[in-house]
Amino acid sequence: MRANLALAQSRAGSAKTWAVVKANAYGHGLHYAVQGFAASDGLALIEPEGAVRLRDMGWRKPVLLLEGCFDHTDAALLCEYQLDTVVHCNEQIRLLETVKAGGSHKASINVHLKMNSGMNRLGFKPDAFRAAWARLAALDIVGTITAVTHFANADDEHNARMSLTEQVRRFASATVGLAGPRSVSNSAAGLLHPELAFDWVRPGIMLYGGTPGPRTASEFGLLPAMTLRSRLIATQEIGAGDAVGYGSQFVADRAMRIGVVACGYADGYPRHAGIGTPVLVDGVRTRLLGRVSMDLMTVDLTPVPGAAIGSEVTLWGSGLPIDEVAHAAGTIGYELMCALAPRVAVRPAPDQATTA
Ligand SMILES: *Cc1c(COP(=O)(O)O)cnc(C)c1O
């Protein structure tokens, strides 16, 4: 995580970095994020309760709520915990108008005003952006206003429906002359368009060693932050015509040995991963067979004749890029990381065991 952050920062020039730690740091744990991203300029996430946890863990640098406040309870946290907030709609401006300046709170709230520059999820349309800016600037409680937007296709420059260039054009023209910092880049933009770093970048997936697009993380020099490992807890000898698992989906065409791995969809391994999805057994590449069940999955031991009960199995991570597993399973690395289930024991890698 430290190395990936350093790479993101080196590509961002003089821009500051929000390390994005939403969804429990993409499944890695906020506790590790605080350590791994200690050199970032701030941590950004969605969950207000996560932001409070970051403060409770001693994080003193900025914290940003990427979707802003959902209600009055969240708005009250902004001053109490010194949180920066996104504002993406008029209802959220109204929430800020109810936050009392003064009292026990001398501090102001830094606002990240979001523009909908073409993705059509969150934000003010370009022609409504200046009015929102003026309304925020009039509030005593508001400190710095940063103009922000988010790209639909930063990893797919030639997308015919909404290009990166068009989103940048809309954002630039609607913010002409507005004072204050700007922030637009996610990982894809950070990796492919360093010229868009502006004042703050917001990398997420790249910090965990995943990539948003078709290119691999190692091509960019990123390291896997998470390795999902288990062991063989049984082996079976099957003959030609024998079927494996629920639905008897895999049928052997010859005698073979298969391994039973203690990992299933209740651990976050995708049930829709099909026959052939890559897996490492004792470091040797082999393939998934049959249907993934709640607690178990079965693998082909043909390439690993020495494998036995206790053999180490790598589902993704070191030696097996998460993006490759994700693509084989018809999803993206983000989803695999985020879906890691609470019952999976999280352990620091051996070389970090002493500092964790
Ligand atoms: C999640 C998120 C990011 C990070 O995106 P990645 O593709 O993981 O780099 C950046 N900005 C916002 C607003 C986000 O919600």
Average pLDDT: 95
Describe the largest sheet: 8 strands, parallel, barrel
Question: Percent helix among the residues?
Answer: 25-40%
Order of helices and strands: HEHHEHEHEHEHEHEHEEEEEEEEEHH
Structural domains: how many = 2
Q: Which ranges are low-confidence, i.e. pLDDT below 50, for 5 or more consecutive residues?
A: none
Number of helices: 11
According to CATH, what is the topology of the largest domain? Answer: TIM Barrel
Across the major sheet, the strand order is 1-2-3-4-5-6-7-8
CATH homologous superfamily grouping of the largest domain: Alanine racemase
CATH architecture of the largest domain: Alpha-Beta Barrel
| Unique bound compounds | pyridoxal-5'-phosphate
- Principal-axis shape equals elongated
